[in-house]
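TA notes. Do not distribute before section.
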Amino acid sequence: MIILYTKQSASPNIRRVSIMLHETGLPYTVQHVAKGEDGKFSDTYLAISPNATVPAIVDQENGASLFESGAILLYLAEKTQRFLPADLKSRGEVFKWLMFEVANLGPAMGELYHSLILETAEVSEAHLQRYRDKLARYCAMLERQLNGREYLCGDYCIADIALYPWCTVLEDLAEVSLGDYPGLNRWATTIGQRPAVIQAIELGA
């Protein structure tokens, strides 16, 4: 059994792990975590997620605990031997697009979310536009990668699972229309119709 540590509202980082669990069919249970009155997570949870973030998982089968959603996706792919190619060259393709999300698209979306939703002080339009421009460039990169491919690396993989949840909020958060990127739009629509993705979103982990 996998224990998925999350919070009441599912962020894209949480949603991708939930999608992966549904795609693999691994049995799991959800445990919501929250900060205490002192504004901190418990020492028990910090032992699982030292960075004090969600999602995190514990695999009760072997006692493994992981934080950071990219690492969790890799672990679950290795555990189930699914959504990660067997040969090294193809795995390298998946790794680079997964790391692109982890190092670039995800942080840029996170910065926009923090600035627009969580920031109490006024944020300059130039600051917001910097990240919107980055995201438009990233969408153009993904559009080129998807040219002639159904999924980012040919077959559906953890890179698709990592990137998809952010694409569902691009329009609202980054003012980037998927309609301007027909390949990316088709890709997002295709993934959104997968039964496991529908189930994960409906449950809201």
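Switch to the second chain here.
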Amino acid sequence: MIERKKIVEIVEEFIHGSEFYLVDVRVSSTSKVTVLFDKKSGGLTVDDCARLSRFLDERLDRDRYDFELQVSSPGLEMPFLVNEQFVKNQGRKVEVTGTDGKRHTGILKNVTEGGFEITAPLMEKKKVVGEQELSFNFSDVNSVKIVIAFK
């Protein structure tokens, strides 16, 4: 079975010095390898994914490892996993689920190594009466994901 660590090393070689960053690598018990990566600005293209896929294929021995490879961006519905996703999405509306189970929705801002802030509606008796700044430490958050708004 192919090791996750080996895949991570090869992806890091590919992204070194570029605008790409690694989000996650998953290797299933059935040897399905999923690599999620993104760009610091803008979005990934099909060509970006194809280049990384070819790069991995050239460096992995198909005779030694039998695996299925999938390379893509993490997608809008997936919770953030790495700090670069927070930085990239500053200014966007996000939903934060705390370790206490409470959910907060607001505009993501001021991302640091230890946490972030959101500007959220201030509610009184089910009415919006203003805005409030909420601060979160990464250790106090279960998940953060983009709120997809349809107009």
